[in-house]
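Example 3.2
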Amino acid sequence: MIDYSFSYGDLEYFLLILMRVASFIAVAPVFGTQGVPPNRVKLSIALFLSILLYGMVPMVPLQYETVLGYAIIVLKEVAVGLFLGLSAQIVTTITAFAGNLVDMQVGLSMVSLFDPVSRNQVTVSGVLYQYTLLGMMLVSGMYRFILSALTDSFTLIPVNGAVFHTDALLASVMTYFRNYIVIGFRICLPVFIVTFVINIVLGVLAKASPQMNMFAVGIQIKMLVGLGVMYLTCIMLGNASNFVFRYMREMLIDFTRSMAP
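Structure, written as tokens:
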């Protein structure tokens, strides 16, 4: 016989699950993109996932006495969801860094546009790399790994069982900033090398023929060659996306371990 009873304690436990899932969906890549999907869709996804997870998450007795105690538990669950979502979201900023480096080399650093997704002024190459990474994330099924990481977090970090190890969190963030520059530079390395060689050639020509305006000529050459190299190296973006996704998995695992009891 199926028991359909749903007590007040079950409602409290369900709301805690909803808080972690909703905070995760609000900032996670693909799901937490600002404006796409709309907020009501995000809330619907969070509510649907919470209903599914309610029957899967092991029930742990909640120990609190006052409303303030329950509010503290809610804040802990929100913090867990935000940390897990941000651990995946901050990795996607590597593409913006690589795009800024490319635009700086080809002479498009002064050209910016308003991105309706991030609601910030971004460079042209940064938007190109960002949407390429999001497309690869949908095609490769990386979003399913992100959802599975959220599901597994309830086993590794039970409800009201999060213990924030600040030293481990700080170590994970420092590792991210170290790899942030390395990965971003690897993505834009072909354009950087070609434009660096062009700068050397233009410098030699400026010394050999001072009467030529190398500044005006160099801007056009660097832009045409840089865009051509970007077009020819588009096939490499798949491997670059795999590298970013592998690092995203490591970040999710590190942040989960740093909050596990």
